[in-house]
Design goal:
alpha+beta, six-stranded antiparallel barrel, four-stranded antiparallel β-sheet, 4 helices, 39% strand, elongated, binds zinc ion
Length: 236
């Protein structure tokens, strides 16, 4: 299994790795990686795989039956080859900042209203966030956004660690997604916004809320029934 270094240290921009398998010439599995695979509403990372002076662009990263597969722009990489990985760091860092902002907003909204997250999609320029909530009141959402911005001005460390599933599920509000977790995960990765929130989460975050900056509301939408949607973005 590929070692997912981005879970231990989301600030790694480069690392060495060894190719463990290659499928159809272009789908490369490595012993370890810094590339985040598409999932949990966070896009895959882009960047480069370098080997013997050849530079391959990483055009897609996905997780397939537990393995992280890197699609490169052309065939040639071989199993056993030593490679160097370089992330498109500017793009990833923006995603880390907007993910952390979305995470804080979700925790405030869900803890404050009992809403559940039904979907979220990070993009490099905006965050889309879907949740179930009986009342649709844009001013309430604006208030939560304002509260998010207030907290983003405070020096608050963000930590992550693994907890055994049973222990993790005892934390109130640890699961904010409407969908239940798959039953076969023995431990959960907890992301803690210190003194504010603990949430089961596999995404990449910044180390301190101060790194996020501020966010601005783009729009809110009433999708009928209990379905609400909000778009927001980092202010530069
Ligand atoms: Zn998160």
């Amino acid at each position: 299994m590929t070692k997912a270094l981005y879970l231990e240290d989301s600030y790694l921009r480069e690392c060495d790795a060894v190719v463990t398998s290659v499928k159809d010439g272009k789908y490369v599995v490595l012993d370890q990686t810094i590339f985040y695979p598409k999932g949990g509403g966070q896009p895959f990372d882009t960047g480069k795989i370098i080997s013997g002076g050849e530079v391959y662009s990483v055009v897609y990263v996905g997780k397939f039956s537990g393995e992280i597969s890197h699609e490169v722009d052309r065939p040639a990489l071989k199993p056993g080859e030593s490679v160097h990985l370089v992330l498109d760091w500017e793009r990833r860092y923006r995603l880390m900042r907007s993910h952390t902002a979305a995470h804080l907003f979700a925790s405030l909204l869900c803890n404050g209203t009992g809403a559940l997250v039904t979907g979220n999609q990070l993009e490099t320029d905006k965050v889309r966030f879907d949740f179930s909530l009986e009342q649709f009141d844009p001013t309430v959402l604006e208030q939560y956004l304002k509260q998010t911005n207030e907290l983003l001005k405070k020096d608050t460390p963000v930590k992550s660690y693994e907890l055994p599933r049973e222990e993790a599920l005892k934390i109130p509000g640890v699961v904010k997604m409407a969908e239940a977790f798959p039953p076969d995960i023995p431990s959960l990765r907890i992301v803690e916004l210190v003194d504010l929130d603990k949430q089961a989460d596999g995404g990449t975050h910044v180390k301190n809320l101060l790194e996020v900056g501020q966010i601005k509301l783009l729009k809110t939408e009433n999708k009928g029934k209990n379905n609400r949607r909000i778009y927001f973005a980092l202010t530069p």
